[in-house]
Amino acid sequence: MDLILWRHTEAEDCGPGLPDAKRRLTARGEKQARDIAKWLQPRLPKKMKVLVSPAVRTQQTAHTLALPFEVEPKIGTGADAADLIAASGWPTRAGAILLVGHQPSLGQLAALLLSGTEAGWSVKKGGVWWFSTRSREGQEQTVLRAVINPEMLR
After folding, report:
1. Residues of the chain with pLDDT under 50
2. If one looks up domain 2-13+20-153 in CATH, what number appears?
3. Where are the domains of the chain?
4. Which pTM was predicted?
């Protein structure tokens, strides 16, 4: 299984009267999302499902992939690592899942997958962390395949 975590790109600040879920991407965030989508598109597995938080900024980020996606409330702004695991079916689901979500849950999940313990790791805005599972000598292993941030694509 492949599990790809993508944090939404730069969004507006939460100002007076603007609910967090309605925050939109900034012009810079739109460019970051396009850049990451351009990097992802030729690399993504053909059999893949895209799950996106209900927040506007995550949906805008996902739209840049030009692929169908499902809005999944379980991975919204209040999610934790266990919610993301449940939504994704990690590590036994067939194929690949791309989750477009938020901090701190993405960082908590990345820490859990790599170290076995949730921790306050940070996934940068627009950052992608790509994990896979493999079996070696009868043991299941988690493999970190890639970490990419928008700044790396300039």
Report:
1. none
2. 3.40.50.1240
3. 2-13+20-153
4. 0.95
Quick one: three-class SS letters along the chain? CEEEEEECCCECCCCCCCCHHHCCECHHHHHHHHHHHHHHCCCCCCCEEEEECCCHHHHHHHHCCCCCCEECHHHCCCCCHHHHHHHHCCCCCCCEEEEEECCCHHHHHHHHHHHCCCCCCCCCCCCEEEEEEEEECCEEEEEEEEEECHHHHC
Residue in 91, 98, 59 with CA at minimum distance from that of residue 77: 59
Q: Which one-letter amino acid corresponds to residue 86? A: A
Q: What is the CA radius of gyration of the chain?
A: 15
> Is residue 59 packed enough to be buried (19+ CB in 10 Å), middle (13-18) or exposed (0-12)?
middle
Gap between the Cα atoms of 63 and 8, Å rounded: 11
pLDDT tens-place string over residues 106-126:
999 999 999 999 999 999 999
Model pLDDT, residue 20: 87
Phi, psi of 47 (to 5 degrees): -90, 90
Backbone CA torsion sign across 23, 26, 29, 35: positive
